[in-house]
Amino acid sequence: MTGLLAAATPAADKRAAFRAGLASGTIQRFPGAFDPLVARLIQEIGFEGVYVSGAVLSADLALPDIGLTTLTEVTQRGGQIARVTDLPVLIDADTGFGEPMSAARTVTLLEDAGLAGLHLEDQVNPKRCGHLDGKAVVPTEEMVRRVRAAVSARRDPNFVICARTDAAGIEGIDAAVARALAYAEAGADLIFTEALHTVPDFEKFRAAVPIPLLANMTEFGKSELIPAGTLESIGYNAVIYPVTTLRLAMWAAETGLREIHERGTQSGLLDRMQTRSRLYELLQYERYNEFDSGIFDFSLGRNQ
Questions:
Q1: Residue 184 phi/psi, 5° resolution?
Q2: Quick one: 117 exposed, middle or buried, by C-beta within 10 A (0-12, 13-18, 19+)?
Q3: Are residues 30 and 151 in the same domain?
Q4: Known catalytic membership, residue 51
Q5: Do 16 and 117 sit in the same domain of this protein?
Q6: How far apart are CA 164 and CA 134, in angstroms?
Q7: What is the pLDDT of residue 261?
Q8: Do both 256 and 191 map to the same domain?
Q9: Predicted local distance difference test score (pLDDT) of residue 128
Q10: Under a CB-based contact definition with an 8 Å cutoff, are residues 111 and 154 in contact?
């Protein structure tokens, strides 16, 4: 049964692995998973971690990424994804779902759900997608209180508190650096600077901030899509690909549905589908069958 109904690796070990990865000198690649099965695929292919995007979770509910999801929804989805993978899972906790006390509670619930870390951002509530215009950030002191509350609430010291700043596109890179330094002083373990544009921007941030840094390589946004090797050479410690798998899946779903609508059959789409056998392989059907047979394949003795 080990590793069948849930991952074999305890949450504490996943958090320790995340910490070790950030200190390893090798960039930690965290593709976004829009459901638990994608998380299993991310692990099988060989990535270092899994990311759960707030934008993806909102889109999965057919909602825009403007802070409409609840802590309960985020915790439930994060727990479902963390349960099935041996990899550390980092989750987007938006602005912490309220005041600093709410950010503290967010940490406790996500820690209990098996997550390896979260990131909190310094946007005003209700937030906006980080690569849209019209964002606003709270005063630095308010975000510092948010970070301190989160840090004080964790029980596992390896649970990673990542502070995200959206200030670069509003106040400029120098202001974002100043905020990052204040958040690090407040206890953040990792800094995520949203919507930097070019390699020199990422280099400038790396030179100015002494703690681990996370890069966001999202498509169709403000950031140049920089290869992981380049980010690693600059000195970045982690990179997320938050919406990539959802975009791939939705493009394929839309294309296929349009063809069925027009032609009345999916027969021309079979070479673009995951096969039944491959799905069953990811789901570990054979192992479930072996377990089922092992439990129920017995005979009664003469005296029973």
A1: -65, -40
A2: buried
A3: yes
A4: yes
A5: yes
A6: 17
A7: 98
A8: no
A9: 61
A10: yes
Residue among 94, 122, 189, 232 flagged as catalytic: 94
Active site residue 94: yes
Catalytic, 133? Answer: no
Is position 142 annotated as part of the catalytic site?
Answer: no
CATH number at residue 71: 3.20.20.60
Collapsing DSSP to helix, strand or coil, 184 comes out as: helix
> Is 119 tagged catalytic?
yes
Q: Which of 111, 121, 166, 232 is catalytic?
A: 121
Q: Which residue ranges of the chain lie beneath pLDDT 70?
A: 1-2, 126-134, 292, 294-304
**35, part of any domain:** yes
Q: Identify the pLDDT of residue 134.
A: 62
Domain boundary among 231, 246, 261: 246
Which residue range is the domain that position 270 belongs to? 251-296
| Pair (256, 121) in one structural domain | no
Q: With 0.85 as the threshold, say if the pTM is over it.
A: yes
- Check if 272 is active-site: no
Question: Which position among 92, 111, 201, 232 bears the catalytic label?
Answer: 92
| Set 216, 232, 241, 247: catalytic member | 216
Tell me whether residue 257 is in a domain. Answer: yes
Q: Is 129 a catalytic residue?
A: yes
Active-site residue (options: 19, 29, 40, 65): 65
216 is catalytic: yes
Q: Are residues 176 and 261 in the same domain?
A: no
The residue from 15, 19, 51, 232 that is catalytic is: 51
Residue 195 is assigned to a structural domain of this protein: yes
Residue 302 is predicted with a pLDDT of: 47
Q: Are residues 104 and 223 in the same domain?
A: yes
Give the amino acid at 70: T
Give the closest residue to 195 by CA, choosing from 145, 140, 121.
121
